[in-house]
């Protein structure tokens, strides 16, 4: 069973990069010096039962390697098109198929995308970077090597700040930073489809040669939740920059996690690599499962092997991939066909240069759009909403535009509008599994509804009823619905008094309670009045009337 | 795998120069300080008579070379190489050839490369050409598939996964005979 699940892995099975990151260091240990991670901060990682048995708590160390497909028209080193779904082998040039006599020609747009991403992640851009060949044999890598940047990547030493919610009610936001080790340009491999029945693999080279940005993060994280938040933040940044569309479902953003556990104060444990994670949701689950598995293994006296494991989302567990070759030796060598890549800034720009041949870092830096963190701060300043709210607004695709449209068309205070957006609208969308763009309620209708509420024409419970009606998407305006269902606030004082009287007569017990001094029961009476009037009574007014009558 | 490092030997010498031909000859060495090289080049370039780039007065110094020890390659390394590069040494003669090649290249260690930047590519003076992001190739499925022996519905066919070389004990190879 495991074997057939492995076959379904889209990526190649042989990418054991266990020794890859180690190769970048000159030191003997495969790990960097002390990661500043907190002690057992992860939701599940911290709840290990070890504490009860008197054993020291476990700390998980998670490092990510993220491959983001660059959003460009043509591939990194050849002029064939980049497109997700296309007839097999139709977007392949002779260079992509590694026919002899072909040479790589670097795509300028890919370089700019890498520089943009490096600047957005606070990296220092290497003005001179080099290309290398990484050799391994696999059917979807026709050349037998991948052109990457191992010695001197384009950008190094950056940081990424991400926030995630903690606490029982998920209302506390924690902000952490993870260091970015490097960002490098590399080629993608083709796609292999495994046909077990005929014992063969079908190779489609459409994806071979597409430009990838590999973002290597330091192992500063300690739980699946943190990793998922970091990946989400990176996704937002890439989408804002436009350097990658970062859609995990289409394979434009691939994450491999390196997970290990250890006791705080001791040396790092043996790490395993988890691959085949297809969505942000599964990322957190896969990492948490792997942490628990390693803890269990070590507590039972076993050892953790340095291996590559695949995540099976159906079973929710990681299974070892075939460990064929042990530690891989990629035989890195400088790419002989490519001179060093030189980037310039305004100071070092030589005169009389062809603009097309020059990538100017300062020019790109000036044109960087507002990053998500900046946009959040602007939202908070402009509308007076809480940081958690702005976080959710940016997290959902299109929600910020929706919110701004509503605020523009209504007089209601944005601080109240945000409540309607996040609680009611978003709640409905999640319930019916819709995106903001697919919402049956347009921003105009919601704005109309909130205007009615703000003016005092209807009560908030009536507004909720109208919203429910609007969700059916029948095209009626809020005003029409209010008229149809006669949900307007009862303006007639007499009518209200009559209803209150009726309710009081019907619930003598509660009246006695209140007269005795139990004020809380008053709320129950108000609720009953509201129910009778189907939400058409102003609660403040109702309370006044009831209190007046009760004191009589 | 060792990385070949060529110091700044003879800059600007044309391919016909005897100094470059044959690479390294046993017994004498050309060494030239890096700074000296660039000055010399400027000199030659600015020379109105354009005498070419073969230096009239080469600076070279004899380097004492101790006879290098015979390099022996272990069976583990040979197995590792066969596995990685899928070469077949076939018999001990092939291994000897390898050892001689390693010894030949080891002569480089006799050169003092202190303070000299390693050269990664002979193209390091050139500008890396940046191509515009336009679609200029592709759509040659039929031509590409003609290269393959087996295809199915426009896909190339490959055997399932990697078939690793069997372990040394299980292989029928000359390496199994212990030395």
UniProtKB/TrEMBL annotation, chain A:
Subcellular location, principal: mitochondrion
Location of the Asn/Gln amidotransferase domain: 401-550
InterPro entries listed in its UniProt record: Asn/Gln-tRNA_amidoTrfase_suB/E (IPR017959), Asn/Gln-tRNA_Trfase_suB/E_cat (IPR006075), Asn/Gln_amidotransferase (IPR018027), Asn/Gln_tRNA_amidoTrase-B-like (IPR003789), GatB (IPR004413), GatB_Yqey_C_2 (IPR023168), Gln_synth/guanido_kin_cat_dom (IPR014746)
Pfam families assigned: GatB_N, GatB_Yqey
SMART domains attached to this UniProt entry: GatB_Yqey
Coiled coil spans: none
EC code: 6.3.5.-
Location relative to the cell: Mitochondrion
Reaction equations catalysed: L-aspartyl-tRNA(Asn) + L-glutamine + ATP + H2O = L-asparaginyl-tRNA(Asn) + L-glutamate + ADP + phosphate + 2 H(+); L-glutamyl-tRNA(Gln) + L-glutamine + ATP + H2O = L-glutaminyl-tRNA(Gln) + L-glutamate + ADP + phosphate + H(+)
BP GO terms, sorted: glutaminyl-tRNAGln biosynthesis via transamidation; mitochondrial translation
GO CC annotations, alphabetized: glutamyl-tRNA(Gln) amidotransferase complex; mitochondrion
Superkingdom as given in the UniProt entry: Eukaryota
Keyword annotations: ATP-binding, Ligase, Mitochondrion, Nucleotide-binding, Protein biosynthesis
A Gene Ontology molecular function term of the record: glutaminyl-tRNA synthase (glutamine-hydrolyzing) activity
Keyword Aminoacyl-tRNA synthetase: no
Role, per record: Allows the formation of correctly charged Gln-tRNA(Gln) through the transamidation of misacylated Glu-tRNA(Gln) in the mitochondria. The reaction takes place in the presence of glutamine and ATP through an activated gamma-phospho-Glu-tRNA(Gln).
Stated family: Belongs to the GatB/GatE family. GatB subfamily.
Protein name according to UniProt: Glutamyl-tRNA(Gln) amidotransferase subunit B, mitochondrial
Organism whose genome encodes this protein: Chelydra serpentina (Snapping turtle)
From TrEMBL, chain B:
Biased composition (Basic and acidic residues): 40-49
Protein name, per record: Glutamyl-tRNA(Gln) amidotransferase subunit C, mitochondrial
Catalytic reactions on record: L-glutamyl-tRNA(Gln) + L-glutamine + ATP + H2O = L-glutaminyl-tRNA(Gln) + L-glutamate + ADP + phosphate + H(+)
Keyword field contains Ribosomal protein: no
Renumbered residue ranges of the record's region Disordered: 17-52
Family from the record: Belongs to the GatC family.
Keywords: ATP-binding, Ligase, Mitochondrion, Nucleotide-binding, Protein biosynthesis
GO MF annotation: an example: ATP binding
Organism: Chelydra serpentina
Domain of life: Eukaryota
Keyword Protein biosynthesis: yes
GO biological process: glutaminyl-tRNAGln biosynthesis via transamidation; mitochondrial translation; regulation of translational fidelity
EC numbers for this chain: 6.3.5.-
Assembly and binders: Subunit of the heterotrimeric GatCAB amidotransferase (AdT) complex, composed of A (QRSL1), B (GATB) and C (GATC) subunits.
């Amino acid at each position: 069973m495991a074997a057939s699940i492995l076959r379904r892995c889209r990526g190649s099975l042989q990418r054991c990069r266990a020794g890859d990151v180690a190769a970048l260091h000159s030191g003997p240990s495969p790990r960097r010096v002390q990661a500043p991670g907190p002690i057992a901060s992860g939701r599940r990682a911290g709840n290990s039962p070890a504490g009860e048995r008197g054993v020291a708590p476990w700390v998980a160390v998670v490092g990510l390697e993220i491959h983001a497909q660059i959003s460009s028209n043509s591939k990194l080193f050849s002029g064939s098109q980049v497109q997700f779904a296309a007839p097999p082998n139709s977007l392949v040039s002779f260079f992509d198929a590694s026919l002899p006599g072909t040479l790589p020609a670097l795509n300028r747009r890919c370089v700019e995308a890498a520089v943009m991403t490096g600047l957005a992640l606070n990296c220092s851009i290497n003005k001179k970077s080099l290309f290398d060949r990484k050799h391994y044999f696999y059917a979807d890598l026709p050349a037998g090597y991948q052109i990457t940047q191992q010695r001197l990547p384009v950008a190094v030493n950056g940081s990424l700040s991400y926030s995630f919610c903690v606490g029982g009610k998920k209302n506390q936001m924690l902000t952490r930073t993870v260091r970015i080790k490097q960002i490098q340009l590399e080629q993608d491999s083709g796609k292999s489809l495994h046909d077990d029945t005929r014992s063969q693999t079908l190779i489609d080279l459409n994806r071979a040669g597409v430009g990838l940005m590999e973002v290597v993060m330091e192992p500063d994280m300690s739980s699946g939740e943190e990793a998922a938040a970091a990946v989400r933040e990176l996704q937002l940044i890439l989408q804002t920059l436009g350097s990658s569309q970062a859609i995990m479902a289409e394979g434009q953003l691939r994450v491999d996690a390196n997970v290990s556990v250890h006791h705080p104060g001791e040396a790092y444990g043996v790490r395993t690599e988890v691959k085949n994670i297809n969505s942000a949701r599964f990322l957190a689950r896969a990492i948490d499962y792997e942490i628990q598995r390693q803890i269990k293994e070590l507590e039972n006296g076993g050892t953790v092997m340095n291996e590559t494991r695949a995540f099976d989302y159906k079973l929710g567990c990681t299974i070892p991939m075939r460990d064929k070759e042990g530690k891989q030796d990629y035989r890195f060598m400088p790419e002989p066909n490519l001179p060093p890549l030189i980037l310039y800034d305004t100071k070092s720009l030589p005169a009389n240069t062809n603009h097309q041949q020059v990538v100017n870092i300062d020019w790109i830096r000036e044109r960087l759009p507002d990053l998500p963190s900046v946009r959040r701060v602007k939202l908070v300043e402009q509308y007076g909403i809480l940081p958690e709210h702005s976080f959710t607004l940016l997290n959902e695709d299109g929600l910020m535009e929706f919110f701004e449209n509503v605020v523009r068309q209504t007089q209601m205070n944005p601080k109240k509008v945000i409540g309607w957006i996040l609680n009611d609208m978003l709640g409905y969308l999640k319930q019916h599994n819709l995106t903001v763009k697919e919402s049956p309620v347009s921003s105009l209708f919601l704005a109309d509804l909130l205007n009615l509420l703000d003016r005092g024409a209807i009560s908030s419970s009536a507004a909720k009823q109208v919203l429910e009606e609007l969700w059916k998407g029948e095209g009626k305006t809020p005003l029409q619905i209010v008229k149809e269902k006669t949900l307007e606030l009862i303006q007639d004082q007499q009518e209200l008094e009559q209803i209150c009287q009726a309710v009081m007569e019907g619930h003598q017990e509660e009246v006695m309670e209140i007269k005795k001094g139990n004020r809380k029961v008053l709320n129950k009476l108000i609720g009953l009045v509201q129910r009778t009037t189907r939400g058409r009574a102003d609660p403040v007014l109702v309370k006044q009337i009831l209190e007046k009558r009760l004191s009589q | 795998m060792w990385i070949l490092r060529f110091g700044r030997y003879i800059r600007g010498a044309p391919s016909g120069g005897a100094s470059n031909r044959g690479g390294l000859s046993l017994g004498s060495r050309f060494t030239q300080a890096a700074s000296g090289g660039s000055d010399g080049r400027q000199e030659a370039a600015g020379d109105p008579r354009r005498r070419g780039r073969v230096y009239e007065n080469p600076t070279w110094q004899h380097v004492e070379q101790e006879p290098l020890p015979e390099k022996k390659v272990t069976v583990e390394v040979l197995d590792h190489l066969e596995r990685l590069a899928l070469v077949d040494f076939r018999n001990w003669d092939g291994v000897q050839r390898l050892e001689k090649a390693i010894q030949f290249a080891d002569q480089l260690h006799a050169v003092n490369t202190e303070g000299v930047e390693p050269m990664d590519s002979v193209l390091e003076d050139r500008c890396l050409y940046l191509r515009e992001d336009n679609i200029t190739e592709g759509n040659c499925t039929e031509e590409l598939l003609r290269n393959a022996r087996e295809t199915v519905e426009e896909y190339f066919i490959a055997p399932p996964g990697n078939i690793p070389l069997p372990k040394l004990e299980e292989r029928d190879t000359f390496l199994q005979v212990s030395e």
